Input
Amino acid sequence: MLWRLIRIGWVITRYRLDTLVPLDRLPGYGRWLMKIAPIRLFPTRQRSDGERLRLALENLGPIFVKFGQMLSTRRDLMPPDIAVELKRLQDQVPPFSSDQARRSVEEALGASVDESFAHFDTDPLASASIAQVHAAQLHSGEQVVVKIIRPGIDGVMRSDIALLYTFARLLLKVWPDARRLRPVEVVKDYEATLFDELDLQKEAANTSQLKRNFQHSPLLYVPAIHWPLTRRSVMVQERITGIPVADIDALIERGVDLRVLAERGVEIFFTQVFRDNFFHADMHPGNIFVNADNPRDPSYVAIDCGIVGSLTREDQDYLARNIIAFFRQDYYEVAMLHIESGWVGEGTRANEFAAAIRSVCEPILEKPLKDISFGQVLMGLFQTARRFNMEVQPQLVLLQKTLLNIEGLGRTLYPELDLWHTAKPYLERWMHERAGPKGFWEELKKQAPELVQRVPQLPVLAHQAMSQIETERRQRREQTAALSTLRDTLNGLRRGTHRFRLGLMFIALAFVWQPLWGWLSHQPWPVLVAAGIGLVLIVWR
Output
């Protein structure tokens, strides 16, 4: 750990990452320390802030590289120039040996590689920080790929994540404005994502779910999982062929209709989010291929389902209504939806919030629809909401990241892509189905099994309900009687207190008359009467 800290310190110094922290926003002691720090003696070498940060992350290793890749999708946190530079980060590490790969497979499966596979390629197809992939053939003749978790990566990840937490907390101490960026929450989200990628059984389950959702759709194909040979550290999957979606020249050469391809990408995204409520959240070009067997009717092939997202039913409704209200320029409705959903505090004033949204979104809507970025719209809304104490919504951050990827991909394929024109009919149809008779019928079908199970219990439930009502009535009568008794007791005590005080006054009056006893020696009855009345009032209950 100490050696790792020393190396990180050296990399920060070498690439002058201190310049990324604005001095004018630091407290006084922080500015003073930064000004006298020896790090300032090192030159910046005329590189941009984003380039120096990218090079530093690449030097720190794959865990920091993946962290930088995650930050590149958080346009709500990073300046645009730095985010663009971080997108150039490449998760490339030397492959581990084929002997180590075979040992890992055999340890996971409890059988030799030759028993499990008819053929296993020693050279990997791809190698990344967390896993590498080998081609293989099953004894049935089926061509597959074998994904293997990198040995020892778990310990490296835990160590580097602990360091990231340390840096995040340190940033909060030396730079108060960093609270707006929520660095600890950012690291926590990254940690959850990273460790999800270590569990290949979870990735396999996600893949099977996505395949099932699109099994009757010509838009998207998901390769099948071979479950008998899948474990937590090894996953065996059908091998696919296709053109990488980023290879535009190859797509054009095959005569693929790029407009249709781009629009289908948008349709797939909205289908995953709203129809299935289960979306592939790592849809960067490296995970997407194109089946160009029919160039006029192309389809997508998706791999690597380690990161997926879903929304609550309420979030789905609010998100769809937010998007539609935004494009209608109904900013008050957008503000009210944020408040009703609990995304911002209940005390938020809708008029003030709507005015803030208008100031951010009006410039966006001045552009032609084909130039409007959905991802930028969401980012603008989230940034505005943060000023009104919006809590970080991890599921919405994943959604924004995925939408930015899909949008960027779509406009790379077809620059004139009008995302709103493509999405609007789908959203309106989905909302109509959700609120109309079809939606009611679908919800009834979902609840039907539970209702059927409860039908035989209805007499018992009715009897229990009636008994509960009768018990509550009896308890209410008893409580009423007890309250009446208590009220009478309190009234009695109040009257007794008044009598006691009056009795004391009469006795005091008798003592006051005491000096007059000489005059009253022949007629003492007034004193005796006063004292007697006082005693009677005191002892009377």
